[in-house]
Each structure stands twice: as structure tokens, then as C-alpha cells.
Amino acid sequence: MIHIFVPCFIDQLYPQTAINMVTVLRKLECDVQYNPNQTCCGQPAMNAGFWDESVEVASKFMEDFSNKKNIVCPSASCVGFVKNQYPSIFEGEFDKMMLDNFTNAFHEFSDYVFNHCTYKLLQPTLKMKVMYHDSCAALRECNIKEAPRALLQLVEGLELIENPDTEVCCGFGGTFATKFEPISVAMAQQKVEQALALGVEAIVSTDLSCLMHLDGYIQQQQIELKTMHIADVLVC
To answer: Shortest CA distance to 210 belongs to which of 156, 150, 155, 163?
Structure first.
């Protein structure tokens, strides 16, 4: 049984990606459950400096997902926050084994599909040339690199082009994008220009936060380039 966590901004701005994630998991014969009481993991408040408010939200989050063995989320950013920050946030408040069990239950979507499912059962088809973007959260916080690439290679008709600078940040970084807007926009511009130079039609990632940032620049500049979450690719 899988319990899904749909991050706040995906719920509000990209609900179809969450639906696509569920569709893919069900194709892999997973029993998918959703707790409608879920809200937020607490990361936005923590990043903005609201420590007490973040702990309050995170405490509710732990209640919502207590005693769940497999929790899957379409955002490495949220997963990385839970795995890496909850042990510090709740140090001394919960038994270490209990905290370890809780954080270890969380999985980023592509990582779970690759490592815990018979992913070759999927038969997606999408004729498109794409560039994969390694989000900082996936790469540095969750150590995810092989899984999304292996899944994209399953897609019939899809050509995956590697960006030599794939490990360079896109410039989003949560509140970084508002506090240091000129730097953030310049980093997005660099990433988009690299995609155009490679001749791809879309940028694919595990994280819609990165894609939202890049798509904002793409739309502002009226560039013919798509952004796609990996769940949106695998559902094709």
C-alpha cells in the first residue's frame, strides 16, 4: 500500500501532475491511498524564517502520515526537507528510531518507481527530444540521479539529451528567487539557453518548483520550449 503526499503548490497549481503520478502508480499495480487531511510539510515557513510556525505545520504533517510504511511524493524538495530537516526539528521530542522510520518511509516518485516497482511494466510513448534537469533537492538532498534517467529511457520515441551543466542550479531556491531576483532570473536564462542550444523541445525534472521557475522565464520571453514533470512524461 502506498500513501501519497501532494505538496501544496502542486495541489494548487499543478493538480494534473498529481493525478498522473497516481495513474502511473496504479499502472504498476500499486494500491494508492490519499489522506485528505494532509496539508504542508512545513518547508516554506522554515525557508522564510518562521521556525515556530514551521514546527507546528510539520507536527501536523507527522500526525497525518504516522505509521505509514510507504509515502510517495512528486517533489524531491519536500522529500529532502522531511528526510534531512525533521531529525533536527524534532530532536529530543521523538524517539530516534521512530523518527528514522518516519523519514525513511518517504520516497520521491521516480526513485520509488525505479527502486520499488517493476517499472519496466510501463510502456509510455512520447515522440520528443528532452533535456533532463537535476534539481538541487533530488541530486544533493536525496541522491537521485540514475532513477529518472532510467525511466525516461523507457519512453518510446523520446530522445534524452544530456546537458553538460545539468548539476548547476536553475536559480529557483524557494525564497532565493524573490530575495535575489536578478541572480535567480540570470540562472534560469542560462538553463533555458542551454536547452535551446541542445535543440530540445522540453525540459523534464522531478521538481515542479524548478520547472515553474524556468517556465516563468520561458513564458516571459515567449520561447517555444515546454517544461514537464517526469510523471507527466511517464503517463503518456
So the answer is: 163
Domain boundary among the residues 114, 148, 183 is at 114
Do 158 and 91 form a contact (C-beta atoms < 8 A)? Answer: no
Residue that terminates a domain, selected from 63, 93, 114: 114
Instruction: Read off the pLDDT of residues 94-153 as tens digits, 9 standing for 90 and up.
Output: 888 888 999 999 999 999 999 999 999 999 999 999 999 999 999 999 999 999 999 999
Domains in the chain: how many in total?
A: 2
CATH number of the domain bearing residue 203: 3.40.50.11810
Sheet architecture: strand order including 125-133: 156-161, 125-133, 202-205, 226-229
Q: Grid cell 533535456 — which residue?
A: 131
pTM higher than 0.90, yes or no?
yes
